[in-house]
Design goal:
With about 270 residues, the chain is mainly alpha-helical. Helix content is about 55%, strand content about 0%.
């Protein structure tokens, strides 16, 4: 079952790229920090081919307080397929919609949320430096790194966006805490995966900012298909930088040179 609500992490679930242990964690309601994402994941996982995961998702849905669920379903931004899922099960939207707060609708039990790192995300970072933070994060399971990617500090996100596990990096991009300034930093990084740069480049919301567009286009690690789609939006200064940079792929440099020639011809007219 698909959903019109999309995040990078949800897309991995829908493409079948998430292992069973992480799907089980999600089915217990522990991964998603937003109501929309939590509900979309739970609805999706009720049809999981693993009976244990499907049963866990259904049990988690059953634990959602009926009044909270009805109020949430009354919101105008609930995806049609999620609303239809509950209507088929006799749950109709409430008379009054919930407010725009997007806190999870159900909280996992204490034993399900316990981990090697269960500190609240609001707790100040106490590690002496980034290396210590990276070492601590490296000792966590994939599920716990996903949780930190979603709910952790900015320093943790900047480390986890480089995680070799694509689910962890996708969780960073799906975090409600990730800011446009974070995305700009990620777009400049040369040590993130191409998947991260592709996801940023394919997001209309993030590429509305020129700084994100230019950071991606000037990053040699960005997939060429993404860079070529953005080069036409660059100002002359950045086009010149690409045309001169031998680290850039030749098709991109050629496109930059053509645009510079066009700009020169237009000024002469």
């Amino acid at each position: 079952m698909g959903s019109s609500y999309r995040t990078p992490l949800l897309d991995l679930f829908r493409r079948g790229e998430v292992p069973a242990d992480v799907r089980l964690i999600a089915a217990r309601g522990t991964l998603a920090p937003r109501a929309h994402e939590q509900l979309a994941l739970l609805v999706f996982l009720t049809a999981d081919p693993d009976e244990q995961i499907a049963a866990a998702a259904k049990e988690t849905i059953d634990r959602i307080p009926p009044d909270s669920l009805a109020a949430f379903l009354a919101r105008h931004d609930v995806p049609d397929d999620v609303g239809e899922f509950f209507r088929q099960r006799g749950m109709e939207p409430g008379a009054a919609p919930a407010d725009q707060c997007d806190e999870p609708l159900v909280v996992a039990s204490e034993d399900e949320t316990s981990s090697a790192d269960s500190r609240p995300s609001s707790e100040p970072e106490k590690d002496a430096d980034q290396e210590a933070t990276a070492q601590r994060l490296s000792k966590l399971t994939v599920g716990d790194r996903i949780k930190r990617a979603m709910l952790g500090t900015r320093e943790e996100r900047c480390i986890l966006i480089r995680d070799v596990n694509r689910m962890v990096a996708a969780a960073v991009l799906s975090s409600p805490k990730v800011s446009e300034a974070d995305i700009e930093v990620f777009a400049r990084m040369g040590n993130v995966s191409e998947d991260v740069l592709r996801t940023i480049g394919n997001s209309r919301a993030w590429t509305k900012r020129y700084t994100v567009v230019s950071s991606l286009a000037l990053n040699p690690k960005t997939p060429i298909a993404v860079s070529l789609g953005l080069v036409g939006r660059l100002i002359e200064r950045d086009l010149k930088a690409i045309a001169r940079d031998r680290n850039m792929q030749e098709p991109l440099r050629a496109a930059a040179r053509r645009l510079l020639t066009t700009h020169t011809d237009e000024r002469r007219k």
